[in-house]
Amino acid sequence: MDKIISAQNVTFEYETEEGNIAVMEDFSVDFEKGSFTAVLGHNGSGKSTLAKLLNGLNKPTKGNVIVSGMNTNDEVHAIDIKRIVGMVFQNPDNQLVSTIVDEDVAFGLENLGVEPNEMRRRVDEALKAVEMYEYKDSSPHKLSGGQKQRVAIAGIIAMEPECIVLDEPTAMLDPRGRQEVMETIIKLCKEKNITIILITHYMNEAAMADRVVVMDKGKILLDGIPSKVFSQVELLKSVGLDVPQPTELVFELKKAGIDLDSSIITVDECVEALTGALQEEK
Ligand SMILES: Nc1ncnc2c1ncn2[C@@H]1O[C@H](COP(=O)(O)OP(=O)(O)O)[C@@H](O)[C@H]1O
Ligand SMILES: [Mg+2]
Q: Cβ(39) to ligand 1 under 6 A?
């Protein structure tokens, strides 16, 4: 598989008045083109620092981050890299700049000097992709949180990125908004082959990814398919993380002596396994 981003032996330090704060040391990770990875980790584990390393907002103190063959340390590639790897942040209000939805989506393109017809095409396509086209003439501040976040995502899509890094994009949304954003992300990955890197605190969101990376103290603690990662219930709890509720239920039932598959992560799988176990009891 093709790698779109490769972080190689990255050391990262923040320079502060009290001295340098080392967040990562000799950190390496690759992301495959078109994949959907969720990144989990307790507060302060280095997730946001990593997100910003992936598009050159943070530069490694040592080591390299390669995006589609370009090194983020090379200033000549800075604009191309930011276009290829789009970022979506937690608070949609901080990401919307205009008073009309479609002007907001066009904002980044204006800065890139895209010509008007092409701009119109890209803005319309991006708004349709996040299912916000019918709101194109609306004012962003009248939208729900989930709708605002989808407009912010449309602004990124209009730049035709190959990868989108989302840093806790659903943290400020209600359950419905969270679901809308998750459906949008999954659709972009599956239909447009956009690589998705989703930082989240929600275990059920991470369970929807192809791969889960768990960070702790600037290092990768676990990395694998969701069912394998979440089967490490005790290790995850030891670093202050939860597991999806169905996994937790199965974990507790197994402790009580009921034989169930520990790779269960979704409600449907859990229902099926419990139905099976109850029938065996009869
Ligand atoms: N701008 C900054 N200056 C100094 N230290 C920072 C800065 N941003 C983050 N840190 C520190 O780096 C560590 C990792 O932070 P961060 O990447 O934000 O973690 P997370 O996103 O997982 O909560 C924390 O100890 C945090 O205090
Ligand atoms: Mg963070």
A: no
| pTM, entire model | 0.94
User: CA 75 to CA 192: how far, in whole Å?
Assistant: 29
What are the tens digits of pLDDT across the range 30-59? 999 999 999 999 999 999 999 999 999 999
Between the CA of 269 and the centroid of ligand 1 the distance, in Å, is 37
Q: What is the pLDDT of residues 217-235, one digit of tens each?
A: 999 999 999 999 999 999 9
Per-domain residue ranges for the chain? 3-243, 244-282
Q: What is the mean pLDDT of residues 104-112?
A: 90
Q: Per the structure block, which two tokens stand in for 92? A: 């949609």
> Cβ-count burial of 55 within 10 angstroms (0-12 exposed, 13-18 middle, 19+ buried)?
buried
Which ligand minimizes its atom distance to the CA of 53? 1
Secondary-structure class of domain 3-243 per CATH? alpha beta
* Residue minimizing CA distance to atom 12 of ligand 1: 23
Tokens of residue 105, six digits: 């989506």
Backbone dihedral angles phi then psi of residue 87, each to the nearest 5 degrees: -120, 135
CA distance 110 to 191: 26
Q: Residue 198 is which amino acid?
A: L
Spacing, Cα 221 to ligand 1 middle (Å): 18
Q: Which residues contact 229 (CB under 8 A, 6 or more apart)?
A: 212, 214, 222, 223, 236
As a whole number of Å, the CA-based R_g of the chain is 20
Q: Which H or E element spans position 245?
A: helix 245-255
